[in-house]
Design brief:
Mannitol-specific EII, Chain A, alpha/beta
Length: about 150
């Protein structure tokens, strides 16, 4: 499964208004509940549980909160661009402004890890992150994500 199969146009938040990690997780959980039909509190609890194991802030202004949720039929990805960088308990104590939420079914197994790896590889591209940060509209952000994650014909 390609990342472009996991993120849909309505799963892009172009102006996240969080000022803290908790607020960001709450907003992401709210959007995930809309998209997946899962209970907002269940999503939030899964994210908090994962954060207790260690931060999902990976540096360079990026966080990839993730978890497995009962009842999902496929992996869902939500992207958010924060209006202002905020502290996320990330490595090196740097503020975060790019967030990718990944929710997987409980039985996703290796697919969950493969999706995390795809997101991580994508975000290693500094120019790509700069393009995301330079976009303000959901459709432009979604277009960038699709261009970067859609397999190219040989």
């Amino acid at each position: 499964m390609q990342l472009c199969d996991m993120i849909k146009p309505d799963a892009v938040i172009p102006n996240l208004k969080a000022t803290s990690k908790k607020q960001a997780l709450q907003e992401l959980a709210r959007k995930a509940a809309e998209i997946t039909g899962a209970e907002e509190r269940a999503v939030f609890d899964v994210l908090l549980e994962r954060e207790r194991l260690g931060t999902t802030g990976v540096g360079n202004g990026i966080a990839i909160p993730h978890g497995k949720l009962p009842g999902l039929e496929r992996i869902h990805v939500i992207f958010a661009l924060s209006e202002e960088p905020f502290m996320f308990d990330s490595f090196y104590d740097l503020a975060v402004d790019l967030l990718f939420l990944l929710l997987a079914p409980e039985d996703a197994g290796a697919d969950h890890l493969k999706a995390l790896a795809k997101i991580s590889r994508l975000l290693r591209e500094g120019q790509f992150c700069d393009k995301l940060r330079g976009s303000e509209k959901a459709d432009a952000l979604y277009g960038l994500l699709m261009d970067a994650t859609t397999p190219k014909a040989a």
